[in-house]
Amino acid sequence: MSTVGTTARRGAGFLASLLRIVGLVIVAILVVHIVFTLLDANPANFLTQFVGEWAAMFNLGLGNLFTPAQPKMAVTLNYGVAAIVWLVVTTLVVRLVRRIA
Q: How much is the pLDDT for 3?
């Protein structure tokens, strides 16, 4: 087996792992935002604001996909769909990178 092939596989494996971690962090941010919303976390708190700002950046434009009357339901549905999309896309991309290697 060639050294170049082994190095390329290791590099692809590292890239796949890095992509998985990034994707899971994004999903975690979205889920934490949903939890903070459902538990009525203090909106003036730094952590709540920080997570909310990042979640808004990662919601893929789905922040107003569903518009139920209850605001908590809207956040749960919209950010939940975004989290699922991120998880599916991350899984597919990681599998693709590993398969190419």
A: 67
Burial of 93 (0-12, 13-18, 19+ CB in 10 A): middle
Q: Which amino acid is at 73?
A: M
Identity of the amino acid at 60: L
Structure token digits, residue 86: 């991120």
Furthest C-alpha separation in the chain: 61
pTM for the predicted model, two decimal places: 0.90
- Burial degree of 98 (CB within 10 A; 0-12, 13-18, 19+): middle
Domain boundaries, the chain: 3-100
